[in-house]
Write a structure and sequence with these properties.
heterodimer, A: alpha+beta, 5-stranded antiparallel sheet, 7 helices, disordered C terminus, B: alpha+beta, 6-stranded antiparallel sheet, globular, disordered N terminus
């Protein structure tokens, strides 16, 4: 199960925060902060896995992150997930954002936060989403104004 | 940063334009969306946190005005929501908008609804009270003809939904499983998965529909159902063994590329699906040879196919390896998996190396040779710059620790410990070091020093068990008394040295340990007198950096030492200083010390030397205060009431004034009426009741919500797997291999000594010291560490040995006989069924260690004379084939004659109680065993009848029953039978009792009617906190209440207390004495069931049973 998805920039500013588990506001902020400090001090050439420790849920949880330009994408998952699988899932997520926004950058996340947030849906949905990303957002695609690129993105991923 | 701002400015117009719809009031919308834009822009331009806060507060107050203004259109509301979400994400409170989000989801058109639902799912949490307002909207949308609306409703249900409202939407969602659109089916499955997570009992009855979803023609639906299966199989793998074939077939299709191309990811077919399937197979095949055999082929295929050099194929490979090592071993596959692990470990990619180490850690118990192969890599990883890799390496080393390499490994761990600052790492590592030190310590000095390091680094964050265990170890000692004394003496000496050092601060826990040890064992010292020790403790006491808790430890130590010190100025000074202390606790201790000090005789008798392990007799009932109490009562004092009673009284007093009809109407809107059942007997209490139920429901709701979601699953199978793997120990002659490896290493050492650099040599040296125990003592790792090494400190390991021994023995016993037994049909034999449900726990075994003197065995005997010797004293003669007797035939053809003979053999007792029909468990030509159950008042009585059908005597037939976890089985007297005469039947009786109530739903044998009056029912009803409600559709045959209740009485043994009009009261108890009450009510053909109990899981279980009975009949 994916427990949380955090996206923040190189300065630790959260850009997208999705918890699949209820945490009080202060704890959420603390988690984001601590996670940021954890990943920040890690070089790019060491491994992408971190044991979550006391942050969320203890030793059963781990953080899997990727660093793209100005953004860190961090997934917090429990032991029922495959590390490498999640690593690729992050890649898929970013690719999707890229398709959605055409060359996604941090700004897109800022100004269109509803789209990625909706893509994330719920954690189990995510695992289906990873197989056919657009299915999940199919509903929302229908809702969008007929903008070509969104529909195009939709067609590309669904059958 | 500046270029970002620049980009913002240039990008903004474009971004906003995209957001605009084609027509409509574009101007209004633009102004709103640009307000989000300007908000974001404003925040980016700010320089301080303080300014940001001011801006957001401003924004929030303007939003507050807008959302509550009646003129605000839904379109504007939608924009407001987006801004609110943004503010909430930044950590500001936007709770005033929650209700508007719900309203938007309810009223808006598709676009607005979508934003409304999104906002609701982001703002609210599972137990938020506003969530109940969403239920109606969801129900409406689920019934909508618009697919998109249905989709949105299903999505929100699978994200957040109040647990107690599940019955309201469950039938609607079940219908959606048959929907023609696959996306709807998929989302319905995910919604049901969510329900399974938060309330497994409520979806128990639709397990069959999950199976349908698994076979769905759409891959997406099938994949969604895998989530549910992975979860359920993790909880109870034995119930789903029959699905192994299906999973294997699905995996074969996926691996073979039979899925549509758009499931491919970097030309790997549905990698995440494969990973999930492999996990499921690993769980199913664990310790189960037959199931495992089904999957060997497909695992082989997966290993072969996953050769592409892409990240995700490594993920699949890793999962494959994991599965191969989890299931019943097959040497070819193990070989291939080992090769794969090698690929991971040797990979230059750091992520793969990490996983390689992880895999090694997992398999090291089964295959220690792998660690030897990769020892140089492991050594390199120990000095890796990445702390995560280092930690993983230490974890690996921890698994291979034995008495020979413990010092080196603990040394490495301590080095790492000194570098790391994260609390989690420290806690974890300190625990491991303490465990290793306790288990394998080579000598006293090393042990005490290691523990000193543990205490001074682990300090106040470590697990409290560590110091406690350590102290108990010192106090209880081991086998050898002189050894113990030496250890204690060494501890005392080392602590005194530590305390002598100036300007060193020790953690409080360490100081507490020191003070206890010094207090207890200073008498062992030769040189220092107790007075000197007291002086040292006194110095600590006067130290300001010592916490008051530690000070009480210190003063306790001083108190213990005082009688040995005879007269000491320090003590007097201490008393003088602390009797005026501001800390009441310290003052109390000081006064105690003072009084004892004045009466030395009493003191010595109260505080004897070295008696810390002896039990004190404590008068827990405080009977010596009886006189005092009686006096108080006679003077008119109120009698004492326990805390819970006072609480209840307080509640009931409040109730009188607290008219709160809303509490109940929320929680029971599935009901048409909301009169509480207790109202029947306690006429005037209705309003009070409803308030209480409301309150209690919210309480229980919160608790359960938290528990269910954060349940923790173990990642690596731990102790159980070890014992399980024993039976499948590898057939490789390990010792010889390892000796070879050792030899090659030493040879290499010799030949390369000259050419190697010094660094290399160091590494080699380290390697040989780290892996020293692995070669010669391969069995250590196979049998779990605890077993073969001679322990320095026995106390802890003994328990472990016993445990593992026990587990493995039951396991071995059950393997052969139990699996075959499980084929026997038991019809509606609840008890046995339930036992089978828990098959993984290996409940019961029949082993008939009998020496049969039948014709078959006679032919095997070389001489007839031996016949006479074949008595109890020669058990080995037929020991080998004793089990064979019990392989039952696959089909049971019970002859009529036998049935009748069994019927006659029912005990007289049977007539008094309800009993089940006799069920044949197994038979062959010589013997047959059957069983039936008697539901006695205090236990479940299992009667096993063993019939000797052969014409010969059967000697020392022995029926062994292994109780399941949580059950206690006791043999009734007079049941053993050393000899069974020819063609006779003997009965064994065992009474089964529950030892402690547990959560798994297998209790039906232990439900008894509870005979109480309606008044008692009313009272009990109020006192129970756990309740469950559900409506059940009745079949036509029993549309009347009395007949429905009769069915419940017969099938579930509930007691009918009273039937009043269309309502009925029933009660039962779970043995030994957990009551559960049921209130039912009939409307047309719907039976509303309402359970309450003091136990949280019992109502759920009973509800499920009732549903089965009523819907089934």
């Amino acid at each position: 199960m994916i427990q949380a998805i955090l996206v923040f920039n190189n300065h630790g500013k959260p850009r997208l925060v999705r918890f699949y588990q209820r945490f009080p506001e202060e704890i959420q902020q603390q988690i984001v902060r601590e996670t940021f400090h954890l990943v920040l001090k890690r070089d790019d050439n060491i491994c992408n896995f971190l044991e979550g420790g006391s942050l969320i849920g203890g030793s059963d949880y781990k953080l899997i992150y990727r660093h793209y330009a100005t953004l860190y994408f961090v997934f917090c998952v429990d032991s029922s997930e495959s590390e490498l699988g999640i690593l690729d899932l992050i890649q898929v997520f970013v690719e999707t954002l890229d398709k959605c926004f055409e060359n996604v950058c941090e700004l897109d996340l800022i100004f269109h936060m509803d789209k990625p947030t909706e893509q994330l849906g719920n954690s189990s949905e995510l695992s289906s989403w990873r197989r056919r990303i657009c299915h999940q957002s199919e509903g929302s695609t229908l809702l969008q104004e007929p903008k070509n690129r969104i529909l195009h993105w939709g067609r590309g991923w669904s059958r | 940063m500046s270029d970002i701002v620049e980009k913002t400015l240039t990008a903004l117009p474009g971004l906003f334009l995209q957001n605009q719809p084609g027509g409509g009031p574009a101007a209004a919308k633009a102004s709103f969306s640009s307000r989000l834009g300007s908000l974001v822009r404003g925040i980016t331009a700010l320089t301080s946190k303080h300014e940001e806060e001011k801006l957001i507060q401003q924004e929030l107050s303007s939003l507050k005005a807008t959302v509550s203004a009646p003129t605000t259109t839904l379109k504007m509301m939608k924009e407001c929501m987006v801004r609110l979400i943004y503010c909430e994400m930044l950590g500001y409170d936007a709770s005033f908008g929650y209700i508007h989000a719900i309203k938007l989801a309810q009223q808006g058109n598709l676009l607005e609804k979508r934003v409304g639902y999104l906002a609701v799912s982001l703002f609210l949490h599972e137990s938020h009270e506003l969530l109940l307002l969403l239920v109606n909207t969801v129900v409406k949308d689920l019934q909508s003809t618009n697919l998109v609306e249905v989709c949105m409703a299903l999505t929100v249900v699978s994200q957040i939904f109040p647990r107690e409202m599940i019955p309201a939407v469950l039938p609607l969602i079940e219908d959606k499983l048959q929907h023609s659109k696959e996306i709807i089916r998929r989302k319905a499955v995910l919604a049901l998965y969510k329900f399974h997570l938060i309330a497994p009992n409520q979806v128990q009855h639709i397990h069959i529909k999950f199976r349908k979803a698994l076979c769905d023609r759409d891959v997406g639906v099938m994949a969604a159902s895998l989530h549910i299966y992975l979860r359920m199989i993790k909880e109870n793998s034995s119930g789903y063994k029959d699905l192994t074939g299906s999973f294997v077939t699905i995996l074969k299709q996926v691996v073979g590329g039979k899925l549509p191309v758009d499931f491919n990811y970097h030309s790997v077919p549905a990698p995440w699906l494969q990973i999930q399937l492999l996990r499921i197979l690993g769980l199913l095949g664990k310790d189960d040879q037959r199931t495992s055999e089904l999957m060997y082929d497909v695992l082989d295929e997966s290993l072969r196919r996953a050769e592409l050099n892409h990240n995700v194929t490594y993920a699949i490979l890793f999962e494959c390896v994991h599965t191969v090592y989890s299931i019943y071993p097959k040497s070819e596959l193990l070989e291939k998996a080992a090769k794969c692990i090698g690929k991971f470990v040797l990979s230059p990619k750091i992520n793969l190396k990490y996983l390689g180490l992880k895999a090694l850690t997992y398999v090291i118990q089964q295959d220690p040779t792998l660690a030897l192969q990769h020892q140089m890599t492991i050594i390199e990883c120990l000095d890796h710059p990445d702390p995560i890799i280092k930690r993983e390496t230490l974890e690996l080393l921890y698994r291979i620790t034995n008495a020979q390499n413990v010092t080196v490994i603990v040394q490495k761990m301590l080095e790492y410990l000194h570098q790391s600052k994260e609390e989690y790492v420290i806690v974890n590592l300190v625990g491991k070091i303490a465990e290793l030190a306790e288990k394998y310590a080579p000598d006293n000095a090393w042990f005490i020093q290691t523990m000193n390091a543990v205490f001074s680094v682990g300090g106040d964050v470590m697990h409290p068990d560590i110091p406690n265990n350590f102290l108990r170890l010192l106090a209880e000692g081991f086998d050898d008394e002189t050894e113990d004394q030496q250890l204690r003496l060494y501890a005392v000496q080392s602590y005194l040295t530590l305390l002598d050092m100036e300007n060193v601060f020790y953690p409080q826990r360490f100081l507490q340990v020191m003070s206890w040890v010094l207090g207890e064992y200073s008498y062992l010292l030769d040189k220092e007198t107790p007075a000197e020790v007291i002086a040292k403790l006194y110095k600590l006491l006067m130290n300001d950096s010592v916490s008051s808790e530690t000070k009480t430890w210190l003063i306790a130590a001083v108190t213990k030492l005082t009688p040995q010190a005879h007269s000491s100025d320090t003590v007097e000074r201490l008393i003088h200083e602390f009797t005026i202390s501001l800390d009441t606790c310290m003052r109390q201790h000081a006064f105690e010390l003072k009084h004892l000090h004045e009466n030395v005789e009493l003191m010595t008798s109260l505080l004897p030397v070295d008696r810390s392990c002896e039990d004190l007799a404590v008068d827990a009932s405080l009977s010596f205060l009886d006189g005092f109490v009686a006096e108080g009562l006679s003077q008119g004092a109120a009698p004492y009431k326990p805390h819970h009673q006072r609480q209840e009284e307080k509640l009931s007093q409040e109730k009188v004034l607290n008219f709160e009809p809303y509490g109940l109407s929320f929680s029971s809107s599935g009901f048409t009426g909301r009169q509480s059942p207790a109202g029947i007997s306690l006429g005037s209490d209705i309003s009070g009741n409803s308030a209480e139920t409301g309150l209690k429901e919210t309480n229980s709701l919160k608790l359960e919500g938290i528990k269910k979601l954060w349940g923790k699953e173990g990642y690596l199978p731990k102790k159980e797997s070890k014992t399980g793997d024993e039976s499948g120990a590898l057939p490789i002659p390990q010792e010889s291999i390892m000796e070879n490896v050792d030899q090659t290493i030493t040879k290499k050492d010799q030949s390369q000594v000259l050419t190697q650099s010094k660094e290399e040599k160091e590494k080699q040296l380290l390697a040989s010291s780290l892996f020293v125990g692995l070669g010669s003592e391969s069995t250590v790792n196979l049998l779990g560490k605890a077993d073969t090494v001679s322990h320095k400190f026995r106390r802890k390991s003994k328990i472990k040995e016993a445990k593992s021994g026990e587990a493995s023995s039951t396991h071995n016993m059950t393997c052969s006989s139990f699996s075959s037994l499980s084929n026997v049909a038991y019809e509606d034999d609840y008890y046995l069924n339930t036992l089978h449900d828990r098959g993984d726990k290996e409940l019961k075994t029949f082993s008939l260690n009998s020496e049969l003197l039948d014709s078959e065995s006679l032919t095997e005997l070389p001489l007839v004379e031996k016949f006479s010797n074949c008595s109890l004293s020669t058990p080995s003669l037929f020991a080998d084939n004793s089990m064979e007797i019990f392989h039952p035939p696959q089909s049971i053809a019970a002859s009529v004659a036998k049935e009748s003979s069994l019927a006659s053999s029912f005990l007289e007792e049977t007539t008094e109680y309800i009993h089940s029909n006799a069920m044949e468990v197994c038979n062959n030509e010589t013997i047959s065993v059957s069983s039936y159950k008697i539901w006695k008042d205090d236990c479940l009585l299992m009667v096993w009848s063993v019939t000797n059908k052969s014409g010969l005597e059967l000697k020392s037939a022995n029926l062994e029953i292994f109780p399941a976890e949580n059950f206690k089985v006791t043999e009734q007297p007079g049941c053993c039978l050393p000899i069974m005469e020819a063609e006779s039947t003997k009965s064994f009786q065992y009474s089964v009792q529950i030892e402690k109530p547990f959560t798994e739903g297998i209790l039906s044998g232990f439900i008894r009617p509870l005979k109480i009056s309606s008044e008692d029912f009313g009272k009990l009803w109020l006192s129970f906190a756990n309740d469950v409600k559900q409506n059940v559709k009745m079949s036509e045959s029993q549309a009347a209440l009395p007949s429905a209740l009769k069915t419940l009485q017969q099938k579930l043994r509930l007691h009918i207390i009273e039937i009043i009009g269309n309502e009925g009261l029933l009660a039962c108890q779970l043995l030994p004495s957990i009551p559960c009450l049921l209130h039912c009510r009939v409307y047309a053909d719907v039976l509303a069931l309402w359970f309450r109990s003091s136990c949280s899981t019992l109502p759920d279980y009973l509800l499920y049973q009732c549903q089965k009975v009523i819907e089934g009949s």
